[in-house]
Amino acid sequence: MREETKSLIRRIVFLVVALGITGAFMFPLLWVVLSSLKTRLEIFALPPKWIFPPTLQNYRDILHSDFMYHLRNSLLVAVISTGVSLVFGSLTAYGFSRYPIRGSDNILFWILSLRMLPPIAVVIPFYLLFRSLGLLDTTLALVLVYCIFNISFSIWVLKGFFDEIPIELEEAAKLDGYSPAQVFWRVSLPLVRPGLATTAIFCLIQSLNEFLVALTLTTRKAVTAPVGLAKLQTFLGTDWGRISAAAVIFMIPVVVFTIFVRNELIRGMSFGRMR
């Protein structure tokens, strides 16, 4: 068999496998989107209906329900905790990367161990702490908890990016009269934008998807979207159409943000492969 034919067969096999894997991952998303456009009877129809007259009634019901208030709480908590985590994470990671610190390996491992803790192991102490401080059912309590988890993750990710910046660039900037703070803000930080974008995506998704801590620390005022989705199940049964519509609306902010930073995200995700 000629080499060109073998190469063509390999490309076709690779394309079929790639399309199969992509389809497997996209099928649940497609099912949710289609369910959000169906009536209750069409959702449970057997065999499943792939062609049907779409309806927006599920979206109208969700837009006039408490879920939009819960979504606002989720976005508020996720954006604030992600922003705070990036600021403190980048400053701490830069310090560990550029300055000798005694026992830095042990300190970094301890920081990483905070990220390893399952939420169920810390949610009760957090509940008792915030109850004594009068912060239960507030967005501030959720922001503080999510910052603890996200800052440790940010430090570990961003330290690798700062380590890859040649020290000669910073020394040249110092020779030009830059102060240490100016070297960080004007030289080092712009060079780790892919790392900041990657970290922001993961912190944002982690904060938006978190369920157990939000369920334990909130009751009414600061309820987030994942908890709000669970509350859509009533004693009359599960309204899968409204839940699907709420899930689609819940995904939109993350999808929009990912598209906005997609170039930096691709560079950040391929960073480890290039090293």
Describe this structure in words.
With 275 residues, the chain is an all-alpha fold. Helix content is 77%, strand content 1%. It has 15 helices and 2 strands. It has helices at residues 3-36, 40-43, 57-63, 67-98, 104-116, 119-133, 139-163, 167-175, 180-191, 193-209, 212-217, 225-230, 240-260, 262-269, 271-274; strands at residues 233-234, 237-238. It has a two-stranded antiparallel sheet with strand order 1-2. A hairpin with a 2-residue loop joins strand 1 and strand 2. Helix 3 crosses helix 13 and helix 4 (67-98) runs antiparallel to helix 10. It is flat and about 70 Å long. The chain starts with a helix and ends with a helix. The model has no long low-confidence stretch (mean pLDDT 85).
Oligomeric nature of the chains: single chain
- What's the arrangement of strands in the largest beta sheet? 1-2
The tally of strands reads 2
Continuous helix count: 15
Structural class: mainly alpha
Shape: flat
* Proportion of helical residues: over 70%
Mean model confidence by pLDDT: 85
Taking pLDDT < 50 over at least 5 consecutive residues as the criterion, the unreliable ranges are none
Largest sheet: 2 strands, antiparallel
Q: What integer value in Å does the Rg equal?
A: 23 Å
The arrangement of helices and strands along the chain is HHHHHHHHHHHHEEHHH
Q: Which strand-content bin applies to the residues? A: under 5%
What is the terminal separation in angstroms? 37 Å
